[in-house]
Write a structure and sequence with these properties.
287 residues; mainly alpha; two-stranded antiparallel sheet; 2 strands
Length: 287
């Protein structure tokens, strides 16, 4: 029973990694930007949820905050990211690192450095029975939201004209341009989706974790690990990588709690030794 509980907790961590990593993978695959500020958008989503929730309640906060963060992502894409799509990748790294620092300090100035907490509605509290043990209802909600986001994103990218253009733009952007299709509007939409997912993860975290300006940095590196393990450029690989490192961390907690964080980096090293492109890295974006 204890093993199953930690397995579910590992899936919960994997859900957070997955929501962050999906946005990172989308932005990198289409625009070539390694967004080191992605964790900052996660933190902004959490703080916005608290601010909105105090006035309008949890439901409105859960709906408005991810959209607001996504729109902020569109503004950042149009004003900053767009200038660096064809530039040296080191420049975009410096840009997004600086953006992360600015966002972190802005949160500290507005909300203060001490941790904040936010109480979820009574209907989301409590426990549910799963087999022989009980599990928090809110954690099951987080897992359900992650599954719904993955399913919706897969449908959008695999079964719609928008998704076909995005996949073609990733595989051969010059050919897409030769056909007279501009990728700029699609890049803005990808920024909205990718950064909005980070904001959504922040909303979910706000109901479970204490908030602090640096909270995004705690998820950023594991999310990059999820992308590397699954395979850069593969949406399916990103999903697999996020779930695997979450489960590995949860299982390790049972037998060796001190190594629960280190195990994900050991897993990354092993995968890179055996498959340098990741588990599904050769299959391409959204495969």
């Amino acid at each position: 029973m204890l093993f199953a509980l930690h397995l579910l907790n590992g899936l919960l961590a994997g859900a957070y990694y997955l929501l962050i990593a999906l946005g990172l993978s989308l932005i990198f695959s289409l625009g070539g930007i390694v967004n080191l500020a992605h964790g900052a958008f996660y933190a902004i989503g959490a703080y916005l949820a608290v601010s909105i929730g105090q006035q309008l309640g949890f439901t409105w906060a859960a709906m408005v905050s991810p959209v607001a963060v996504g729109l902020l992502g569109v503004v950042v894409e149009r004003l900053l990211f767009r200038r660096f799509y064809k530039a040296d990748p080191a420049l975009s790294l410096l840009l997004t690192f600086g953006l992360a620092m600015v966002a972190e300090q802005a949160l500290r100035m507005i909300f203060g450095a001490p941790p904040l907490s936010w109480s979820i509605p009574p209907e989301l509290r409590g426990q549910v029975f799963i087999g022989d043990f009980i599990y928090p209802r809110y954690r099951l909600l987080i897992l359900s939201v992650a599954v719904a986001c993955v399913a919706g994103l897969w449908f959008l990218l695999q079964r719609t004209p928008f998704g076909r253009v995005v996949r073609a733009g990733v595989q051969n952007p010059d050919m897409v341009g030769a056909l007279g299709i501009s990728l700029e509007p699609y890049m803005a939409m990808i920024a909205f989706l990718g950064i909005g997912l980070a904001g959504l993860a922040g909303v979910l975290a706000a109901g479970q974790l204490s908030l602090e300006p640096t909270m995004g940095a705690n998820l950023l590196m594991p999310s990059f690990v999820a992308i590397i393990v699954g395979g850069v450029g593969s949406l399916t690989g990103t999903m697999l990588g996020g779930l695997l490192i979450g489960i590995a961390s949860g299982i390790t907690t049972v037998f060796w709690p001190a190594a629960s964080d280190a195990v994900i980096y050991v897993m990354m090293a092993v995968v890179l030794l055996l498959r340098p492109r990741g588990l599904l890295g050769e299959e391409g974006l959204l495969s």
